[in-house]
């Protein structure tokens, strides 16, 4: 499996059978100005919540690729008004797709859409794909609900927000990694705005002290998972 980072909380997972794009916010991110949005391919787009820094490029990419969008019902209703029709709406629970199983899990955050309407509950996802189990927390603060994932899964990777202010910071993310019992973490949701800037060296060392690995790929970089 391959992971390509596009900045903020946007990334692409390439499985053996599908390209899964998450939270597409690229064109509005000055750190991702070298990324050509029009060249990004996707078979599915998974949306954690409705904030602009997660859905800014959603409609354009969904229409261009005809990717199936997996999201909360409220986001699905907003997408339909934008002319997007290939949608699988779900809520906290799990569903088996042709590429693998997706569990939508709760996140401690808020959610509204670009037009100001309610975006439903914020969420994260656990994927069981190609024999690997991966957790994407979405935008969330630290919550005890994460401990349940350690009982349900043996996670290979946890993709966690680490920028603070709106979400967990590196210290909280270390605790989250302990809660979900995962030693390999990929950081997202940092540095895009001044208020979520982090000291990368400090963050990496914080995870190292907890005997965990924090990966911070550059925007546009691809990792083999």
Automatic annotation (TrEMBL):
Residues 7-189 form the Metallo-beta-lactamase domain. Keywords: Hydrolase. One of its GO terms (molecular function) is hydrolase activity. SMART domains: Lactamase_B. The keyword rRNA processing does not apply. InterPro entries: Metallo-B-lactamas, RibonucZ/Hydroxyglut_hydro, UPF0173, UPF0173_UPF0282_UlaG_hydrolase. It comes from the Bacteria. SUPFAM superfamilies: Metallo-hydrolase/oxidoreductase (SSF56281). Belongs to the UPF0173 family. NCBIfam families: PRK00685.1. This is UPF0173 metal-dependent hydrolase DPV69_11175. It comes from Pedobacter chitinilyticus.
């Amino acid at each position: 499996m391959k992971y390509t980072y596009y900045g903020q909380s946007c990334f692409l997972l390439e499985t053996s059978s599908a390209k899964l794009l998450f939270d597409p916010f690229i064109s509005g991110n000055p750190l991702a100005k070298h990324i050509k949005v029009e060249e990004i391919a996707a078979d599915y787009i998974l949306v954690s919540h409705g904030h602009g820094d997660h859905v800014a490029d959603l409609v354009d990419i969904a229409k261009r690729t005809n990717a199936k969008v997996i999201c909360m019902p409220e986001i699905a209703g907003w997408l339909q008004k934008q002319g997007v029709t290939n949608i699988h709406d779900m809520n906290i629970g799990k569903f088996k797709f042709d590429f693998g199983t997706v569990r939508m899990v709760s996140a401690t955050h808020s959610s509204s859409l670009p037009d100001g309407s309610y975006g439903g509950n914020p969420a994260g996802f656990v994927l069981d794909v190609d024999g690997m189990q991966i957790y994407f927390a979405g935008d969330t603060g630290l919550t005890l609900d994460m401990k349940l994932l350690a009982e349900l899964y043996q996670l290979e990777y946890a993709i966690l927000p680490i920028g603070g202010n709106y979400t967990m910071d590196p210290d909280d993310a270390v605790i989250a990694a302990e809660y979900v019992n995962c030693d390999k973490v990929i950081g997202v949701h940092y540095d895009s705005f001044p208020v979520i800037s982090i000291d990368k060296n400090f963050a990496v060392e914080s995870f190292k002290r907890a005997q965990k690995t924090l990966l911070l790929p550059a925007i546009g970089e691809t990792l083999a998972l």
